[in-house]
Specification:
199 residues; alpha/beta; Rossmann fold; 6 helices; 7 strands; 27% strand; binds guanosine-5'-triphosphate
Length: 199
């Protein structure tokens, strides 16, 4: 979610971009860990259910620096959208939860959605796989993740393991890239609309 603020940099007045990323997903699916590893390079094994939190970090993209406002929502209530790639959660559940999520409607209406499959390392966990099989379930595959992305009209499906710090940076780089592209698009549309209104 892009926002603009004025800033002064290197003696020149220039527009500094602020971007907003809201993370929603099931309780315990790994949202806080994803944020902690990205912002503090720190992974906690212990599960502490979170309440709504905000943190701010800076990100560099194509030589420019942007402010990333990161919002972590409480999973118990139910964008980057996260789900655990090995949980009982099926892609259809994701679809329903995403579309029904008040956070999505409140924060992300009309904006870029990235679906994230978390804890991919657990796909290799044999004990967990047995547990899932015994209840007739399977870990979610990459293909299922991609299908869900199409269903929910997300722009992108990415997978990560916060525990092993795999693909974490990529998620926020993609979020930055796509938020910037969305800003550009909406500015163009506004300019077009403004021109029409004057006529
Ligand atoms: N194996 C593995 N465990 C993870 C990973 N990411 C998070 N966990 C564990 O999963 C548990 C829940 O992670 P959180 O990041 O707190 O989950 P959350 O989505 O923020 O949960 P809520 O605060 O309830 O919304 C913790 O015990 C983490 O250590 C991962 O990539 N791999």
């Amino acid at each position: 979610m892009p926002q603009n603020v004025s800033g002064v940099s290197s003696g020149h007045t220039r527009r500094r971009e602020e971007l907003k990323v809201v993370i929603v997903g099931d309780g315990g699916c790994g949202k806080t860990s994803l944020l902690m590893v990205y912002t503090k390079k720190d992974f906690l094994e212990k599960y502490i259910p979170s309440v709504f939190e905000k943190c701010v970090t800076k990100v560099r993209y194509r030589g420019d620096e942007f402010r990333l406002n990161l919002y972590n929502t409480a999973g118990k209530v139910l964008y980057t959208h996260a789900f655990e790639s090995t949980s009982a959660l099926t892609p259809d559940n994701v679809l329903i939860k995403v579309l029904d999520s008040p956070e999505v409607h409140h924060f992300c209406h009309g904006l870029t959605i990235i679906l994230v499959g978390c804890k991919t390392d657990l796909r290799k966990d044999k004990a967990l796989a047995r547990k899932l099989w015994s209840s007739g379930q399977n870990p979610i595959t990459y293909i299922q993740g991609e299908e869900t992305k199409r269903k929910i009209k997300a722009e992108l499906y990415l997978e990560c393991s916060a525990k092993y710090k795999e693909n974490v940076e990529d998620i926020f780089r993609e979020a930055t890239k796509r938020a910037l592209a969305a800003t550009k698009k909406s500015r163009k549309a506004k300019r077009r609309n403004g021109f029409c209104a004057l006529l």
